[in-house]
Amino acid sequence: MPSAGEEPLFHQIAIVGFGLIGGSIALAIRERWPSIRITAVDRPAVLAHAAGSGAIDRAVQRVADLGGNDLVILAAPVEQNVRLLPEAAATIGDGGLITDVGGTKRDIVNAAGALSGVRAAFVGGHPIGGAEQGGFAFARADLFRGRPWILTPNGTSPPPAVDRLAGFVESLGARPTTMDAEDHDRLMAFLSHLPQLTVSALMEVVGEAATPSGLRFAGRGLMDSTRLASSPADVWREVCATNAGDIGVALDQLIARLQQLRAGLTDAATVDRVFERAAHWRSELMKGRE
Fold first, then answer.
1. What is the per-residue pLDDT across 113-147, written as a single tens digit (0 to 9) for each?
2. Residue 166: how many CB atoms within 10 A of its CB?
């Protein structure tokens, strides 16, 4: 991480969408570089909360009113980020940089590549950090500390811009890495999107079968394994829409495995194999994390 006295890589930053991720970025910036001027775009109630907490210096309700910033971070839902990209590009001048934090990258990277006459560079981004509940009220400065932050530059992203953004996210405590947008979406379909949809469907099935009275008898296993079921749908419906192909492949593979398990419930070898392979991959997942 850069030293505490190092000059900030950006001096004026705009964050469009001040929920959990956008708010946490602002808080991390405040902690790392208090001198950076932060402008936020969101609804009036959210902006009032952010201003009252000292997380921002300026609040506007439209991207068109941003004015000059050397970094614009699109932190709205993924489809909204794509729609806002041309408007954001029009507010930023030579040497400026635009990034996003969406959970799918293919659409916005393609949209950035199709822009014409834009003086700012675009580098897609996805910080791997989250919480069960969204909104600025749950934002925290350490959300990205020690976590990966995937950068997905397109064919027109200048290498110095990629390096500059990588240095910035590293200064917030994250671990930057680069990846092709298509590879990112395929990987996230399994690492993030499939677990979310599986847990949400699981909790729905269990809840409707057990009813509130039955749920009182649930142990820690159900509570621990369904933590993601509290996630807000407004974020995930756009993730599903923008990565439907890769998520469909992931769901098909899970459904096939469940069908195999369903057919082999009385076959010890089938049950043993699922549990053994699951324990193996869980061990791989947790290496270096415990």
1. 988 777 789 999 999 987 667 788 888 999 999 99
2. 20
